[in-house]
Design a protein that fits this description.
Helices cover 43% and strands 23% of the residues. The protein contains eight helices and 14 strands. It has a five-stranded parallel β-sheet, sandwiched between helices. It has a four-stranded antiparallel β-sheet with strand order 8-9-10-11, covered by helices on one side. The radius of gyration is 19 Å and the shape is elongated.
């Protein structure tokens, strides 16, 4: 299991990171919101452990970013036990909200509970296959005829969004919403056109057999 851990207190971060690694978890520790955004752009995580108050932002913003990119589990770790903050965190999709100080065994127990819920609810296929292209969501990798394609985070997210639509046509607005602000970038309509073109080039679309089809007046569709 891969965990994104965001905590601005270096002493707390060091101790908890050590404990998590002792339990066998792979941990990416960040001390600011900007570091967390970069980590989310680089990698895919099974769980985000987020402090709420950070020097350059909020754990709530990181939660929104993580949920927008993938259906990632989120647990807030915070000294603020105000009911309004707890409710706000849960309403935006967080799976749990733990108030500091807490015991490591309590955290591990709650993490296991969250993982169990996701395992039961996870209906995402291990792979999506379209023609000679295979998409592996758990590894965030794409292959063509067995060879990995060097996609950027944006290109991968765009392809995965189209694949999850299962052949349905997605409008440009729907695609823009799925890509907006990934890695701190604003994606506009012109940028989407550029990503579509780059992705088509990397997939090997030659105009005769397009995997990403343009449905005039509607949007785009992924199909053989």
């Amino acid at each position: 299991m891969k965990i994104l851990f965001v905590e601005d207190d270096h002493s707390i971060a060091m101790g908890l990171e050590y404990s998590l690694k002792q339990e066998g978890y792979e941990v990416c520790t960040c001390h600011s919101a900007s570091e967390a955004y970069e980590a989310l752009e680089r990698d895919v995580f099974d769980l985000c452990l987020l402090d709420v108050t950070l020097p350059d932002g909020s754990g709530y913003d990181i939660c929104r970013r993580a949920k927008r990119r993938e259906e990632t589990a989120v647990i807030f770790l915070t000294a603020c036990d105000d009911e309004g903050n707890v409710v706000m965190g849960l309403d935006m999709g967080a799976d749990d909200y733990i108030v500091k100080p807490f015991r490591i065994r309590e955290l591990l127990s709650r993490m296991r509970s969250v993982f169990r819920r996701y395992q039961k609810a996870d209906r995402t296929p291990q792979t999506f296959t379209v023609g000679d292209i295979s998409i592996h969501p758990l590894q965030a990798k794409v292959y063509k005829n067995g060879e990995e394609l060097p996609l950027t985070a944006m290109e991968y997210r765009l392809l995965l969004t189209l694949a999850k639509a299962e052949g349905k046509v997605l409008t440009r607005n729907q695609l823009l919403e799925s890509l907006w602000d990934i890695g701190g970038e604003y994606v506009n309509d012109n940028t989407l056109t550029v990503y579509i073109k780059r992705l088509r080039d990397k997939l090997g679309d030659d105009g005769k057999q397009e995997l990403i089809k343009t449905v005039r007046g509607l949007g785009y569709q992924l199909g053989e």
